[in-house]
Amino acid sequence: MGLLKKFRKYIGGKRLEWPLPFREGLTFQDITVRDPFIVKDGSGGYIMAGTIYHYNFNDSYGTVIYKSEDLKLWRGPFTILKKSALEKKYADFWAPEIHFAQGKYRLLITLSPEGEKRGTYMFSCDKPDGDYKNGVRLTPEKFSCPDGTLAEDNGRYWCIYCKEYIECNDGEIRAVRLKEDLSGTEEETDVLLFRASDNIYKPAKTRQKVTDGPFCYFENGERKLLWSTRTSDRKYVQLTARSVDGRVNGEWVQEGAIYTSDGGHGMIFTTYEGERYLILHSPDARTAFTKKYERPVLIPYPETDKIKR
């Protein structure tokens, strides 16, 4: 391990136990997680997935979730995808999302196969908290991809994903359509939606510009997309874009930032009572000097006047 990587690990703060010890009565302040994603479990409760590291920004050993009945107190973790159970060697286990599509729950997660480029994969299960299997890669093997999400358009599913800035400097948000049976993707449908430099809120002046955390949702009948980037003042922010014609592969326009206090990679969900929330992580990175760690932040949506800016 090089000196730079050792220093990065040192300033990253603390080493987490793995497997993480099971605990109950946890609040968001007790859970260190990036890229939080919440779904209803179908029985009156909620499941939260997210990127949970063994040590700083690597060494994840699998995918875990936490469970709650009221979005306030959580218990866990519960393992839903084990690194040791996969046929190939993978690293990362980033940005897990759980979607329901064609009668099954679909776990989207970013993995780095040994000797190959990082990409988003999809695993399937009959239960949201079950043992996910039968993984298939969704993002093109020629690109390195840190995040991907699932979106439906006229009965067909798309994977909206990020092309990593380390390959193209100006990070991209792209989309590729899945096959009708969700067994893979139709790579000839891959299309560029927009670039990091299209950001209209304090666009970064650096050569390399980040695209991160896409998530598709609807607001007042319009298709929108959450995504994140870093700005000219090096803050991590939550942005939104809108599809002009409502199509995934149509024209997208930027709407600016909705959270600017060093947080992002959010998603929007609706509770059993019909209330809508935005959840994201903040701050963006842990540091031993400030002793701050990534935590989930839950915000009523679209009450943007209550969002910390």
What's the Cα radius of gyration? 18 Å
Chain-averaged pLDDT: 89
Determine the oligomeric state from the structure: single chain
Helix content estimate? under 10%
What is the count of β-strands?
Answer: 20
Q: Can you identify the CATH class? A: Mainly Beta
**CATH superfamily name?**
Glycosyl hydrolase domain, family 43
CATH architecture: 5 Propeller
Strand order of the largest sheet: 1-5-4-3-2
> From the helix content, strand content and strand pairing, which structural class follows?
mainly beta
What are the secondary-structure elements, in order, as H or E? Answer: HEEEEEEEEEEEHEEEEEEEEE
Q: What's the number of domains?
A: 1
How would you characterize the largest beta sheet? 5 strands, antiparallel
Q: DSSP helix count?
A: 2
Uncertain runs: 304-309
Q: What is the terminal separation in angstroms?
A: 38 Å
Shape: globular
Describe the structure.
This protein is mainly beta and 309 residues long. It has two helices and 20 strands. A hairpin with a 2-residue loop joins strand 6 and strand 7.
Summarize the structure.
The chain has 309 residues and is mostly beta strands. The chain is 4% helix and 49% strand. The chain contains two helices and 20 strands.
Task: Summarize the topology.
Blueprint: H1 3-11, E1 23-26, E2 34-40, E3 46-51, E4 62-68, E5 74-82, E6 90-101, E7 104-113, E8 119-125, E9 133-137, E10 148-153, E11 156-163, H2 165-168, E12 172-178, E13 185-195, E14 212-219, E15 222-230, E16 236-243, E17 252-259, E18 264-270, E19 276-282, E20 295-300
Antiparallel strand pairs: 1-5, 2-3, 3-4, 4-5, 6-7, 7-8, 8-9, 10-11, 11-12, 12-13, 14-15, 15-16, 16-17, 18-19, 19-20
